[in-house]
Amino acid sequence: MPSRFVRADQPSRGRWIAPILFGIWFVGISIPLASLAAQHALPFARRAPTAPVPQEARAPRARHVLAADCACSRAVADRLATRRVPPATEEIWIVGPTPPWRPALERAGYAVRAASADDVTARFGVVGAPYLVAYDASGVERYAGGYAPRRPRLAGDVQVEALVASVLAGTPPPPFPAYGCIVGETLRQQADPGRLAYDTPVAGS
User: Considering only 4-8, 12-16, 92-96, 151-155, which range has the smallest mean pLDDT?
Assistant: First the structure.
């Protein structure tokens, strides 16, 4: 005759379901989160430009590549907007839709241009933003890299004045690592296939 009683020390299958499901969820969410953290914790490398070098009567002393949907680029833009630069001496190339901070940059004297991700990659070899390319008085590129020794989260982190001044003085510093956001749509899909960080396609990529 079957017993009507269950031993008190007999483990129940139900008690293990919740921990197992939690473990599966934790592993599943940890992998993409770690990937997203690495995207901003690891600097991106510059590629060799593929477009012909433009013939310029006068090269700007600096080119700034920013991404409209990038918080790091916004921090750099906030810092750039506090400067006053002579007209046509520095350019800002913005990848993506027109951001609300563009007018402040134009008022500060920058030549602001809209660009696609493919355009900045072909012209300057840049695959991420924010990115700074600076030139000496003769128009020769002397600096290409980031704006700070770490990811620029605030305008105060951005060291653009010192970097541009050093290049113009003939003493370019070693480049800072370039931390920030990937600008190419193809590269974004490879780095973030689940669209956890980059949920908006890059315009013109």
Answer: 4-8
Specify if 96 maps to a domain: yes
Write the CATH number for 109: 3.40.30.10
pLDDT tier at 54 (50, 70, 90 boundaries)?
low
Number of structural domains (the chain) is 1
Task: Tell me the per-residue pLDDT of 91-107, one tens digit each, with 9 for 90 and over.
Answer: 999 999 999 999 999 99
Rounded-to-integer distance, Cα 84 and Cα 105, Å: 9
Give alpha helix (H) positions in the chain.
Answer: 14-41, 71-80, 102-107, 117-124, 160-168, 185-191
The answer to whether position 36 is within a domain reads no
Residue 172: which domain range?
62-188
Tell me the sheet residues that pair with 133. 63, 144
Paired strand residues for 65: 93, 131
The answer to whether 95 and 123 are in contact (CB under 8 A) is: no
Q: Using an 8 Å Cβ cutoff, are 147 and 176 in contact? A: yes
Q: How many Å apart are CA 164 and CA 182, to the nearest integer?
A: 24
- 52-90 core/surface letters (b: 16 or more CB in 10 A; e: else): eeeeeeebbbbbbbbbbbbebbbbbbbbbbeeebeeeeb
User: What does the pLDDT look like over 160-198, one tens digit per residue?
Assistant: 999 999 999 999 999 999 998 887 554 444 444 444 444
What is the 8-class DSSP label of residue 157? Answer: G
